Amino acid sequence: MDHPESRAGSTAPRSYLLAFGEAEGTHLHSFVFTRGRLFTLILLFLAGSALLIYLAVHFFYRTEVHFKTQSLRKENALIQERFSSWENRVEKLEDLLSDLEKKNRQIRITASLTLPEIEYGTGGSASFRETVYRHIPRLEDIEQDVSLLESQMDFLRKSTDELESVVQSKIREIAHYPSIRPIKGGWISSVFGTRVDPFTGQMEEHPGLDISVKPETEVRATGAGVVKSVNTFVVRNKGYGKFIIIDHGFGYETLYGHLSQIFVQKGQQVKRWDLIGLTGNTGKSTAPHLHYGVLVAGKYQDPENFILD
After folding, report:
1. Domain final residue pick, 145, 176, 207
2. 209-246 burial string, b = 16+ CB within 10 Å, else e?
3. Which has the closest alpha carbon to 213: 264, 289, 306?
4. Would you state the pLDDT for residue 289?
5. What's the pLDDT tens digit per position in 144-179?
6. Residues 92 and 241 in one domain
7. CATH number, domain at 222?
8. How do strand 269-270 and strand 275-279 relate by DSSP bridges?
9. Cβ distance 300 to 293 under 8 Å?
10. Does 5 reside within a domain?
11. Could you say which of 5, 151, 268, 288 would form a disulfide bridge with 215 (CB–CB 3.0 to 4.6 Å)?
């Protein structure tokens, strides 16, 4: 028959002893755990480890997301900045296109030229932005396209400016071109070229046009220019008597001889149709008339080739 104490000891729960201390020390620290407590501690340790791992993973994930977000924000800000830059450049190109279109029309109207119409592109920054958003991976290509367009527009602008300059120069030349008859009425009594000298009866080269007309007929400048020379000294039967020479620029000069009165001075600017004098019979002249001469690059030319009215 078993002893009661033996039976009681056999039913007591199993315990575990945890002791720790210095290797050579005399003091030990010990803890006694039952199986249930030890199991609970292991579960708590595993749960704590799992929580720490979760928190660490969550921390690193949030950190990575934060850096990626910051990177995306910077990249987005850069893209927005480039979009704004492109929009400004496109707006400037549109303004330039509008100016070129106006210049092109003004040139045709002013010069009465039949020039080919230039096709100008239209559109706005909104459509440009939509186009860019559809091609985000090709931002560098778009940058190159905008730069190329700017280069082409700059060339077109310079070409238009050069054309405008040429047309304006031609307009000024037309205003200075000796293109009208210097007097109204009368008749041509001697043409340009070889003729018989009325004083000597010999053949001579006549460097102008003689227009017979009644005395004191108004003489008009045939084109805009500056009075180059005025002669009021008269020798009977010699030279052109009282005469005026006008420098029209562009290589053109005109001479008005045998005048009775002169209304302009040397250095004076005149326009086409300005009154410059009156016809007379001064110098080498047999009757009242106007000697009209045209010089191109210092050489006399037939005035009739210049008279357009």
Report:
1. 176
2. bbbbbeeebebbbbbbbebeebbeebeeeebbbbbbbb
3. 289
4. 95
5. 777 777 777 777 777 777 777 777 788 888 899 999
6. no
7. 2.70.70.10
8. unpaired
9. yes
10. no
11. 288
209, 304 Cβ separation under 8 angstroms: yes
Closest alpha carbon to 90 in 118, 130, 135, 137: 130
Please state whether the predicted TM-score (pTM) of the whole model is above 0.85. Answer: no
* Other beta carbons less than 10 A from residue 59's beta carbon: 10
Q: Measure Cα distances from 74 to 63, 70, 81, 131 in Å.
A: 17, 6, 10, 22
pLDDT in tens, 68-100: 888 888 877 777 777 777 777 777 777 777 777
Query: Cα separations (Å) of 105 from 97, 98, 255?
Result: 12, 11, 38
Element (H, E) at 166: helix 139-176
Residue reference for tokens 């720790």: 20
Query: CA 10 → CA 3, 42, 163, distances in Å?
Result: 11, 26, 120
Same domain, 146 and 197: no
SS3 99: helix
